[in-house]
Amino acid sequence: MKSKLLSTFSMLRFFIVAALTVFCVSCDKTETTDSTGFILHYLGVTDIGPGMSYTLQAPTYKGSAPYDFTITKVTLNEETFSNNDNFVINAETGEITIQNTDGMTSGMYSISVGCYSNGKFFDFKDAVQVNMLLAVPEGVTVEPAEVLVNQDEENWAEASAQVSTEADKHVSITGYAIAQDETKPYLSYFTFDPNTKGKIIIRESEKDKLVAGESYTLNLKLTTKAGEHMYNNAVTFKVVSKPRDLFYIETEALPDLFETGTENKSVIPTIAGAKEELKFAIKSVTPETTAFTINEATGQISVPEGNSLEISETPYIFTITASNAYGSNDFEGIYSVKVVAFIEPIQPETFNYTPVNKLYQLGGGLESQKPDEGFVGGAPTFQFDESNSEEIKAQIAQNIISINSANGAISIANNHTLSAMTHEIKVKVTNKKNEEGVVKALSVTVVENPNDFTYVSWGTNIEHEIIIGAEDDYFPKKETNIAYRNQFRFINRNWGVNGNKVENIEVLDSDIPAGSTASYKLIGKFPNNNNFPQLNVGSILENGTITTNNGNSSSLGGSNSAAAAILLIEVTSSNNEAPAVKKNIPVFFNSPENVSTGTLLFTPFVVRINPHTGQCSSTTSKVYEWKNHKFNKEVSAPNIAIDYRTNFSYWNFDNNQNHASGDLKANTSTDAEMLFQVWNNCGFSKPSDMGTRVPLCYYDTQKEDYPGPGNLTAKAGYIDATTHQIVINPEKWKGKDGLYPNGVVIGHIHYVFDGNANRIHNSKYPDGTPVTPADGKGYSLFLWFDETYEGN
Prior knowledge:
Helices cover 4% and strands 39% of the residues. With 792 residues, the protein is mostly beta strands. A 5-stranded mixed sheet has the order 2-10-9-5-6, with no helix packed on it. Strand 18 and strand 19 form a beta hairpin. The longest helix is centred in the first third of the chain and has 14 residues. The N terminus is likely disordered. It comes from Bacteroides stercoris. Pfam families: SGBP_BT4661-like.
């Protein structure tokens, strides 16, 4: 069992390296879609400023190893940008260097990257996005520039820094945020105080992740009327404490072996705590002896050549005192040594692993695969070799692949994301007689899971042709366009007057393998209550059929106002050979509000979005007159103004507690909710700010003299006024944990036909006359965030 310190340092290494492996971060999510074939994945948006240079790490990938990388296109704010060596890619590794930034125009740069994999060329549009900000406004400072965080103090987590402006050089700052940099996952540990403008604090929920002895430097993104500005290296939180959690070697490897009469040394220990004036001393040795000495600076324990220690089965047990500028600590029994006659050198031919010929994707794991019997070598230490592939290193960084340093046992967690191929996991073993080490590999052949599937379809009813003058057809059919899959629209509140009630919705299609058995379980209803006005669900049958409460003419639909609902259905595909595969499949229901002057319909009404890239699926909008349970005619609306406006909610599809579901409401939302965090990313940090509509509205003001959309790049998203398509700014869609959302935002659309955007806000005409409510309001549009989405 690893010590607490080793676990702490492993976590730290994970956070440092995890930026290389964003694709794998979501491996513990239940998937809503499956990505097949070759996939390339870079880190997300990076905020940088003039004069800064930056190297974006090599991408992760799924499939055969990529090569011959090239930049195929660069755009600035969606316009072609002439790349004069501002962005340079390493053809072998895919690393992208951003340089010569002094004169670069501010804005969002999107970099498309091409590469070969298995002889085929792939071009990934907008694979990388870089947000170039303006320089920090003159007169802005952070006090103190270095915050000392002493974990030995009772209220150490209350340490903070304050952004200030000089009185004679006053800059009006309207928004505060920590600049994005995915090579620094620790940025999520800090935030701005929602109650004090410009105050940088440690998140209470993240404080235990701060490691004594480490420093955390933050860049700030400040918003003024002139735009967004980068304050580089604005503040450093320096975490200190007296020494804690000293670690030499694995408990399983103790006692260490020293050979009698020869010079012997321990490993150099690791320790948590401040490094200033760090010293080590031997407090006691049992049995007592003065033969051992310790390096005061490093903590390494040794005995010299010709020492008088005698061979004994009784180990020497050490208590070590470590001290620094902030105090000292005694670590009792932290290390032990047994004196032996001879330490056996490592015999390379005896170090081997038996190959693992079948490890399944999606649920297959490996537990404690030890080296073959017959290994010869005294007091060995096993560790992963640096020559491992990037894919293996990525899994090691997340502790998905782990090793016991005492016995060499390798374990692979069942949430691994290794590609289907034969992998070599390289291990180096060393001991005191062979410090250069011997490297051997465990061969693991990863195979596709025969239970894997990509979709289950209950069909759709939005592909039915709208027939003017006829009652709408509500019955499901198998979709011909996958963008419509599992979407159902019920318009008439009193629909089904002629007996057209939909009481059962059956599974119409899936790609669950023929040899697998499918089972279904309803695991979520959104809104989360037993009976929806818009979806009165009875149960999910064994064959996946969604049943409704019979005998009610409003079995589906039935709401007096616009309504939206989601069923989240867990589908399990299993057989006796391989691990079962579980995926959460959402089924969407929409009941648009009838409006006498025209009913707006979006088709499809679910917009698929990759929050990493901002890629969105498209939709079309039309207006129909609806009378007597029928579409009377299609209405021409050339001046229609549409806004994504009110009643925003987020429903989480995975178990990430940092991305909590909830309705966004002023003074009741908390920073655990995903939408609170998105609003925070847009510069709104207080609970009272949650009432603002700006982050998802195109028309972002309720003033009577409507001035226009404002700064669109500062928003989380909006409906474009011309195309009526959803636009997403991906840098805004990230939680405080640095991960992207996996779930759905539901919000209501408001619209008017005369183009007067003021009326969307239910405000007043310039002469002070009150306007009537907008022509239409309350149409629900779904934004489905899924970072595996690649377009359809």
